[in-house]
Amino acid sequence: MEQVLFEIVDNPILVEEVTNKVARREAGAITTFIGTVRELTKGKRTLHLEYEAY
Protein backbone atom coordinates (compact mmCIF):
# COMPACT_ATOMS: atom_id res chain seq x y z
CA MET A 1 0.00 0.00 0.00
CA GLU A 2 1.34 3.46 -0.91
CA GLN A 3 1.87 5.80 2.06
CA VAL A 4 0.83 9.45 1.69
CA LEU A 5 3.57 11.61 3.22
CA PHE A 6 2.09 15.06 2.70
CA GLU A 7 -1.16 16.85 1.94
CA ILE A 8 -1.81 20.35 0.61
CA VAL A 9 -4.97 21.92 2.01
CA ASP A 10 -6.60 25.33 2.07
CA ASN A 11 -9.00 24.61 4.91
CA PRO A 12 -8.45 24.53 8.68
CA ILE A 13 -6.15 21.76 9.94
CA LEU A 14 -7.89 19.49 12.44
CA VAL A 15 -5.33 18.52 15.08
CA GLU A 16 -7.07 15.28 16.08
CA GLU A 17 -7.27 14.18 12.42
CA VAL A 18 -3.55 14.83 11.87
CA THR A 19 -2.61 13.12 15.13
CA ASN A 20 -4.61 10.03 14.16
CA LYS A 21 -2.79 9.89 10.80
CA VAL A 22 0.69 9.84 12.39
CA ALA A 23 0.06 7.81 15.56
CA ARG A 24 2.02 4.56 15.72
CA ARG A 25 2.33 1.99 18.51
CA GLU A 26 6.13 2.13 18.24
CA ALA A 27 6.23 5.95 18.51
CA GLY A 28 6.97 7.49 21.89
CA ALA A 29 5.36 10.88 21.31
CA ILE A 30 3.55 13.16 18.90
CA THR A 31 4.18 16.89 19.17
CA THR A 32 1.78 19.51 17.82
CA PHE A 33 1.70 23.30 17.98
CA ILE A 34 -1.56 25.23 18.04
CA GLY A 35 -1.52 29.01 17.81
CA THR A 36 -3.49 32.04 16.80
CA VAL A 37 -2.53 35.11 14.82
CA ARG A 38 -2.23 38.42 16.61
CA GLU A 39 -3.89 41.34 14.89
CA LEU A 40 -0.94 43.68 15.37
CA THR A 41 2.81 43.10 15.72
CA LYS A 42 4.84 46.16 16.73
CA GLY A 43 1.98 48.34 15.48
CA LYS A 44 1.73 46.66 12.06
CA ARG A 45 -1.42 44.82 11.01
CA THR A 46 -1.10 41.17 9.96
CA LEU A 47 -2.10 40.92 6.29
CA HIS A 48 -1.41 37.27 5.52
CA LEU A 49 0.38 34.16 6.76
CA GLU A 50 2.61 31.62 5.13
CA TYR A 51 2.52 28.26 6.86
CA GLU A 52 4.71 25.18 6.46
CA ALA A 53 4.51 21.94 8.40
CA TYR A 54 6.97 19.07 8.34
TrEMBL record:
Membrane-spanning parts: none
One of the Pfam families matching this protein, by short name: MoaE
Domain of life, source organism: Bacteria
SUPFAM superfamilies named among the record's database cross-references: Molybdopterin synthase subunit MoaE
InterPro entries for the chain: MoaE_sf, Mopterin_biosynth_MoaE
GO biological process, one term: Mo-molybdopterin cofactor biosynthetic process
Protein name per UniProt: Molybdenum cofactor biosynthesis protein MoaE
Species whose genome carries this gene: Bacillus cereus
